[in-house]
Write a structure and sequence with these properties.
By secondary structure, the chain is α+β, with helices and mostly antiparallel strands. Among the domains are: 1-65, no CATH class; 166-284, Periplasmic binding protein-like II (D-Maltodextrin-Binding Protein, domain 2). 38% of the residues lie in helices and 22% in strands. The chain has helices at 2-18, 22-25, 30-33, 85-98, 113-121, 144-153, 203-230, 239-249, 259-267, 298-308, 311-318; strands at 67-69, 76-80, 106-109, 125-128, 131-134, 139-143, 156-173, 193-196, 233-236, 255-258, 272-276, 284-292, 323-324. Strands 1, 2, 3, 6, 7, 10, 11, 12 and 13 form a nine-stranded mixed β-sheet that branches. Helix 4 runs antiparallel to helix 11 (311-318). The longest helix is centred in the middle third of the chain and has 28 residues, at 203-230.
Length: 330
């Protein structure tokens, strides 16, 4: 036990001294703190702050993986549906290269769209653990219909700006030990699933539509009703992080996510694989954004929305399998 604490303290000291996360400095720390499994998974790259001060991250205890940058007086605040948290670091870097006046002054969150709406309704205030802070959004980015809904609700102002599309895939542990071949297999008794929560994760509605295409209402009910009741379906709160984490921890054997999330986990070197869903059963999402009502930085907001649909921005999305929005996807 003493050696474990010494290693953890040493990791903190390395981070504080150099500004580089301990995982990037000493791979031996992974065996002590599981930094290779617990998010954040990008070794500090998803942080826009220039001066990071004392580094303190304990992967499975003190970790704000979905909140990025410095919340004090940002020049652009982004509420981003968490489906592409992994693309934000290169997107922000490219945006700041284009507009250097914003360097180190972006703040963004990547929790599910429905939870971001709750935060907007709370005036931008959020509490995580023992910490409470307030940052109101300049831009809200989610599925096209979710953006339209919040314009109607008065939290956003038009126009809706669509920019990319995505499709679903089944995420499984490396080797696919449960032998998942398609959506129909998710209804098998005993197969443990990690599935997005329909209460606030828009992807859940699209998953239910695909389950119905593949196996009728009985398959959708099996996955989202029967198996929830018997405990073999666990509902996530932040699906883009919990699903691969639970798969790697052995808590689940499969889960439906966006195919881009499977691609990121593979690129990160994690023991994750994907099972393709045929086009006839799949569902396409359209990602869009809009400026927040009474945004503090409307010009920066418009610049961001123009950037994510530009060739440079779309090229970054394409690294993870997203496709440019053409107006044809529904």
């Amino acid at each position: 036990m003493a050696s474990t604490w010494r290693a953890a303290i040493a990791a903190l000291a390395l981070t504080a001294a150099t500004g580089v996360p301990a995982m990037a400095q000493d791979k031996k720390v992974e065996s002590v703190t599981d930094l290779g499994v617990y998010p954040p998974w990008q070794e500090g790259r998803n942080d826009d702050a220039v001066d990071r001060g004392f580094g303190f991250t304990i992967a499975d205890a003190d970790n704000l993986a979905d909140f990025h940058g410095n919340p004090q007086n940002p020049l652009l605040s982004l509420y981003v549906g968490g489906n592409y948290f992994f693309a934000m670091a290169p997107l922000v870097a490219a945006f700041e290269a284009k507009y250097p006046e914003y360097r180190g002054r972006l703040y963004w969150e990547t929790i599910p769209p429905g939870l971001l709406v709750r935060q907007m309704q709370a005036g931008g205030t959020v509490t995580v653990g023992n910490m409470t802070w307030t940052v109101k959004p300049d831009v809200y980015l989610a599925g096209e219909k979710a953006v339209e809904k919040q314009i109607e609700a008065g939290l956003l102002q038009g126009p809706v700006v669509p920019y990319a599309t995505n499709t679903l895939a089944i995420m499984v542990p490396k080797g696919n030990p449960a032998g998942i071949k398609g959506l129909a297999d998710l209804g098998r008794p005993g197969v443990k699933l990690a599935m997005p929560n329909p209460e606030f994760e828009g992807i859940a509605r699209q998953i239910e539509a695909s389950l119905t295409k593949a196996g009728g209402a009985s398959l959708a009910d099996a996955v989202y009703k029967t198996k929830v009741q018997d405990g073999s379906t666990q509902l996530t709160h932040i699906h883009h992080r919990q699903t691969p984490l639970w798969l790697m921890q052995g808590k689940a054997q499969a889960g439906v996510t966006w195919q881009s999330e499977v691609e990121f986990q593979k690129q990160a070197g994690h023991p994750i694989e994907g099972v393709d869903i045929p086009a006839a059963d799949n569902t396409t999402a359209i990602y869009a954004g809009a400026v927040a009502k009474n945004a503090a930085h409307p010009e920066a907001a418009r610049r961001w929305l123009a950037f994510v649909r530009s060739p440079e921005g779309l090229a970054i999305f394409e690294r993870y399998g997203f496709k440019p929005y053409t107006g044809a996807a529904k």
